[in-house]
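Narrative progress, year one. The postdoctoral researcher (J.K.) led the effort to move from monomer predictions toward full complexes, under supervision of the PI. The following entry was the first complex the group processed end to end, covering 398 residues in total.
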Amino acid sequence: MSKIVSVSLDGIAGGRNEEEFWPVHSAVLGWLFDLASWRALQGMDGGRDGVDSRLWQVQFEQFGAQVVGRSMFDYGVEAWGETPPFHAPVLTNTTRTGEPIEKLGGTSYTFITDGIEAAVAAAREAAGDADVLIAGGIRTAQLALRAGVVDELALHVAPVVLQAGARLLDGEATGELQLRCTEAVPGEGAVHLRYDVLR
Amino acid sequence: MSKIVSVSLDGIAGGRNEEEFWPVHSAVLGWLFDLASWRALQGMDGGRDGVDSRLWQVQFEQFGAQVVGRSMFDYGVEAWGETPPFHAPVLTNTTRTGEPIEKLGGTSYTFITDGIEAAVAAAREAAGDADVLIAGGIRTAQLALRAGVVDELALHVAPVVLQAGARLLDGEATGELQLRCTEAVPGEGAVHLRYDVLR
């Protein structure tokens, strides 16, 4: 059960409101958008190859299912289109139920209304022997961290300093965390850190 | 002209007041206190050897002079004792002048009252061919970053999440920064990152 997140050097991972969303999103994920491996997941040719691209590909391929929150789902579902970049079952943690939706390329959307632990359990079952990714957003990741169901945290640290935004690692939201770094790789556009969550 | 700083995973480097000082200081610098190389700088035997200790020693040895702010000086001067851990000239950026002070082991304290750029210039002269370290505190580091006199930033990221404290990388205090990661090393107690400051 892993969580991948891109953060600024001052730990900001997203916007606190709609106005902040795009400036923060583009600053902390700027390293990702143009990668060859990320473009390939969306069916696009070209893009930048190198450390960032290869590391992202290896990291992403380990996931057999993903968990997202309702806000991320509502925000993204149109943009993700008919062949979404997940290529795996996506379990949406939500209070609003709905019929499962099948997309092309291996992506399906299922709605789980019994809380984050139930969403993660459903994802584990869907993933089989593969790993599960908590894809976001921030509040869903914080819920999962607080619930103790995340055993690895992959932080992609973009070399930018933002003045305002929402922090993923916020003691009040996540509870106390004990982490141990297992990998640190400097890429072209971000530093890639992996932490075991020990708690 | 370098700046070394220890931060939490959420970017906190120090306290905003006296009450926060020790909890933050001990959390973000916990990885350092017991290192063999850090103990040796203070004339003490023993301590923990390994990646953290060797990296700290190599990093610290490159500095021929250090710059501190008045608050750090006032706070630390007694604790640093007669053989301070700097083993180099220390230039204090201050509005309050004073006579130079000689200590044992190569440390001297000189007071510069013409601003951070003058303090850095004096340190460069004192350092000769060696590098200069902006040793702290946070406000002095922010002044130096804003003044554009820092060309490398060494971040030691401790695997802790703090709820409250002062951030070094605060856009309002430092101005906009362009950084490029040149090194990322996972140690036993912290991840060690180096960034070139491109601006």
